[in-house]
């Protein structure tokens, strides 16, 4: 089984919620366990929110999600100035902002950041999925 979603979005806060809902619906239809679905949605939300907060005004960004068997790969690409994830200070534990990279690293099985100075950044998040009994995703993965 391979399911792919690709979205080109305006750098607008409303796009984060829409993207989160689309991915959540896809994972729910496939029968992904609720807590895994919520982790994936939160990872996506953090990656997209960072684009909204830090990329250049007016830029678009893209989100692609690929579910292959029991793996979910999310790629968020912006066209901003890029960033060095090693230079980002960890946010305070109770802070409202500044913890996105920490949250992504905590929830994802694998996180990769690719910096493209003056051409933006790419964030890749991978998560192993688990399905409820008799879930369409489980049945389709068996073929």
From TrEMBL:
<keyword id="KW-0808">Transferase</keyword>
<dbReference type="InterPro" id="IPR003594">
    <property type="entry name" value="HATPase_dom"/>
</dbReference>
<feature type="domain" description="Histidine kinase/HSP90-like ATPase">
    <location>
        <begin position="10"/>
        <end position="125"/>
    </location>
</feature>
<protein>
    <submittedName>
        <fullName>Serine/threonine-protein kinase RsbW</fullName>
        <ecNumber>2.7.11.1</ecNumber>
    </submittedName>
</protein>
<keyword id="KW-0723">Serine/threonine-protein kinase</keyword>
<dbReference type="InterPro" id="IPR036890">
    <property type="entry name" value="HATPase_C_sf"/>
</dbReference>
<keyword id="KW-0418">Kinase</keyword>
<dbReference type="InterPro" id="IPR050267">
    <property type="entry name" value="Anti-sigma-factor_SerPK"/>
</dbReference>
<dbReference type="GO" id="GO:0004674">
    <property type="term" value="F:protein serine/threonine kinase activity"/>
</dbReference>
<dbReference type="Pfam" id="PF13581">
    <property type="entry name" value="HATPase_c_2"/>
</dbReference>
